[in-house]
Amino acid sequence: MNSAAFVVIAILTLAAAVAAATLQKLMHAALCFAVAFVGVAAFFFLLGAEFVGLVLVFVYIGAVAVLIVFTILLTRRDLEKDRSFNWSGVVIAIAVFGGLLWAICKTQMLSSSAPQIQPLTVKHIGAVLMTDYVWPLQCVGLLLTAALIGALVLVMEEKNSKSYRVE
Amino acid sequence: MTDFVDQIFIQAKQRLLLPLAHSPNWVVQIASSLVNIFALLAAFLTLFALISVLERKILGRMQNRYGPNRVGPFGLFQPVADGIKMLIKEDVVPARADKIVHFLAPILIAATAILALGVIPYGRNMTPFTIDGGILFFFAVGSTTELAVFMAGWGSNNKFSMLGAMRAIAQMFSYEIPLIITVLPVVMIVGSLTPDAIVAAQSGYSLGMVPHWFITTPWGAVGFILFFISGLVESNRTPFDVPEGESEIVAGHMTEYSGFKYATFFMAEYIGMFAISGLGVTLFLGGWHAPIRGLEVIPSYVWFFTKLSILLFVYIWIRGTLPRTRIDQIMNFAWKFMLPMAFTCILAAAVWHYAGRGLAAWFWSLGVIAAAYIALSILLDTRRKFAPRTYRFAE
Question: Which residue of A12, A138, B69, B264 has the smallest Cβ count within 10 Å?
Fold first, then answer.
């Protein structure tokens, strides 16, 4: 049953990813991108890492996908015509794919059977985050707070600019 | 006897699955899920039909008029008439609309709203789908709604739709943060993201009559109020219904929808309201636990749906009472008041926990919240709130 689910999810994810790369309308591509995220999250569910899958849905569909569609909406005036083919992009994509493939094939772990691991529960993740990885967590928190304040500063009203008052 | 009535739905489901006893495991699993799904849909679509007519009746009573009273006794069959009307209406799709996105948006919004219902415990042993991070699942699924609203707004190719969608997304994003942060103290105190564990942690009574629901603690009470307000915003209800303010932007992101697609949006909105109220009941109002020990003979699901109905009544009551707020007021309220208060809840819950969870802890926790509230009201200077609005890019 698991392998059947794997094949279905893999086809869905790959189809969505290909559609995201090839569709003419940028907005459709962005929405297909979100579907691909759903597929990846489903893989995590299949592997028993529910927490990671849920966070992926939460962050990437709830926030990043919305951010992408808004970026497209607010920056492109003509959504359909701006589609030029970029050969350097193809070269970089193939290079990245080749590099990843090489790294995967070189990995020793693939040949050995998977060790018995405990299921990844939320409680376990929480305990590890609060003990072993507490400093990286704090650093990420600091970075995100800085980004939030930076965003606020960017959109903050300038004091000396003329603001209109409606009586 | 009490146990039998309490577990009657569980027994019924086991009877139903009895013919499959010798099938492979995955067949039983799928059949069991299907039974759960059908039960959920039947229960909540009935509740939707009931609430849609009750809301009009209650609003009518509040506005000193009759409300629907033509179809059936007391107008109770009004939803049937409405449903038939919606089904046979013409489905108009704008010529310049993006057909696929326009079509998919109502489906996505309804599907996510129904999915969120799946993790709420409706009674003893009555959680349709038990997953480790149930609360997280609820919010992960709920966050997909924003994309669906965007699809509706953008796919319609209409400026009112797009403006409505932008308003909806702006306020949903802003209130999702206090919504989730008010859930954190509960998760902290219980030590689990599973709704069943959260309900189990609220069992028991002090002195036989004060239930150990989280709303009886200071941080829980404040958290519940914040959660309820955020829930109002998330379900686009009055007084936070700017995304579909009829007098301003027609119907927001639903402007270009007609017939059954509009009905789907309408249904998704109500189902979302049920889901967020159900989560509120689970988190703060003790889930399916009875309020007094002596009343535990009444089945657990009756208590859950009683609490849910009370919350829904408050939703309707608020709709009948308050006018619509302005978008800048909504945003200011979210970022300047709701967010700091939500953070205070976390602190107050920690104080409550480490002071021993007793009466002294109760007052310590209250002290933290009172201090934060007074500090906020001084800092925000509430007298200035009623100044005329200043515009940056318009006159």
Answer: A138
The reply to whether residue B98 touches residue A27, judged by beta carbons under 8 angstroms, is yes
In the three-class reduction of DSSP (H, G, I as helix; E, B as strand; rest coil), residue A32 is classed as helix
Q: Which of B144, B180, B332 to mutate to test the interface with A (most CBs of A within 10 A)?
A: B144
Q: Is A130 helix (H, G, I), strand (E, B) or coil?
A: helix
Cα–Cα nearest to B91, from B257, B271, B266: B257
| Per-residue model confidence as pLDDT tens for chain A (167 residues) | 678 888 988 999 999 988 888 877 788 888 888 889 989 998 888 887 788 888 888 888 888 888 888 888 877 666 555 556 678 888 998 999 999 999 888 877 655 666 666 666 777 888 888 888 999 999 999 999 999 889 888 877 665 555 444 44
Please check whether residue B142 is in contact with residue B236, taking contact to mean a CB–CB distance below 8 angstroms.
no
* ipTM value greater than 0.85: no
Chain A residues whose CB is inside 8 A of the B143 CB are 57-58, 61-63
Least CB-CB distance to A65: which of B139, B147, B394?
B147
Partner-chain contact A28 B154, CB within 8 Å: no
CATH architecture group of domain A1-79 = Up-down Bundle (1.20)
**What b/e string do you get for B268-305 counting C-beta neighbours within 10 Å, with b at 16 or more?**
bbbbbbbbbbbbbbbbbbbbbbbbeeeeeeebbbebbb
Q: Minimum mean pLDDT among A106-110, B172-176, B234-238, B255-259: which range?
A: A106-110
